[in-house]
Amino acid sequence: MPERLVFHIDVNSAFLSWEAADRLRHGDRLDLRTIPSIIGGDQKMRRGVVLAKSIPAKKYGVTTGEPIVSALRKCPHLLCIPARRELYHRCSRAFLNVLSRFAPVIEQVSIDEAFADMTGTALLYGPPLDAAAQIKDAIREELGFTVNIGISSNKLLAKMASDFQKPDRIHTLFPEEIPNKMWPLPVEELFSVGEATARQLHSLGIHTIGELAQSNLALIRSHLKKQGEAVWNYANGFDSRPVQAESAQTKSYGNETTLAKDVTDFDEARAVLLSLSESVAARLRADQIKAFCITVKYTDHQFINQSHQKMLASSTNVTEEIYQTAICLLSEMWRSRIPLRLLGVSASHLDDNGFYQYNLFHGEKYKKLEKLDNAIDSIRSRYGDSAVRRGRFLPPV
């Protein structure tokens, strides 16, 4: 039986790279990756943060996750680009499509990273470094952005390897390489070690991954419980999790937004739900998937979270049906005038068969809505997301 071989593929500065590649493809001469730039939405929006940054922006000390106003103080000439979620989902699908040509099994971890089980593929693509180079080069040449690839015998070590020097690099971290490549690193760089765990480890005199690996497991477990045992195993490179393609029953398509201001008016909330429903439905249609379950969630001004879901009689990817269901769900759980800070819509319990039992939107009406959605998708695919806009979202005249 061939030795297990796992790749972790991570897109470099995904949102910014995808925006740059799309602009270059449409005739722009300026590559956003070569200047101080970020993806982060409108800086006037409350709680706007940096979602992705260029390498030149990083040189000014700009960090992912910091407020946009803070980033602008560090670099006043920083170019701030609003996020385009639909573009990112299209690029993510294209990224996964390339991976599927090479790997028998792919596990998507997030929109911009995935594991690939490459066990037994040596006769097809050669040694691991050669196979990784073929994947990396195919993504760069066909899609216009770069990735890092980590190679090892398990998911943990492959993930750690892909986080080594960036961008556009390939790194290995096999068990025999752990003492030289992983153990000297600060314990904070170990997968799953957050700030609180790191503080507890520091209090025990543990500052590097190697010190954690060589510490007494009983001691670590007594202070950190199950989390302590997990990080001790990771520090020693132990990870038995398989690369597993995601089940359609557990996968979901969702979108959420932090509101520019607290919303207390239901009509304003309806407009947000419409935008979110459009995004979710378009992604379902792009993947030729329908969903049986619609969920709406909100966070109020006191940061209390609520969610409510409904199972449909038949699966759907029609914007109007998802939107109307979302309205019903929000109306059932939102007490009037409670200020909302965040709204989200998601679709789950997926179905790729496409059969529809006419219930809420019967006969010709449902068919017309399907045709309308498909026409809008086609226009936006060719001319951009703003080519067709609902009257609800147009500025007043």
Q: Count the strands?
A: 12
Percent helix among the residues? Answer: 40-55%
* Radius of gyration from CA coordinates: 23 Å
| H-E order | EHEEHHEHEEHHEHEHHHHEHEEHEH
Number of distinct helices: 14
Content-based structural category: alpha+beta
State the end-to-end CA separation: 70 Å
Largest sheet, in brief, is: 5 strands, mixed
Question: Judging from the principal axes of the Cα atoms, what is the shape?
Answer: globular
Q: Strand order, biggest sheet?
A: 5-6-1-7-8
Uncertain residue segments: 354-361, 391-397
Strand content: 15-25%
Describe the structure.
- With 397 residues, this protein is an alpha+beta fold.
- The chain is 41% helix and 20% strand.
- It contains 14 helices and twelve strands.
- It has helices at 14-25, 55-58, 68-74, 85-102, 122-125, 128-143, 155-162, 178-181, 195-203, 209-213, 217-235, 266-286, 319-333, 363-383, and strands at 6-11, 37-39, 52-53, 79-81, 105-110, 113-117, 147-152, 170-172, 252-263, 290-300, 305-316, 340-351.
- The strands form three sheets. It has a five-stranded mixed sheet. Strands 9-12-10-11 form a four-stranded antiparallel sheet.
- Strand 7 (147-152), helix 7 (155-162) and strand 8 form a beta-alpha-beta unit.
- Helix 4 (85-102) runs antiparallel to helix 6, helix 4 runs parallel beside helix 12 (266-286) and helix 12 packs across helix 13.
- The protein is globular, with a radius of gyration of 23 Å.
- It starts with 5 loop residues before the first strand and ends in a 14-residue tail after the last helix.
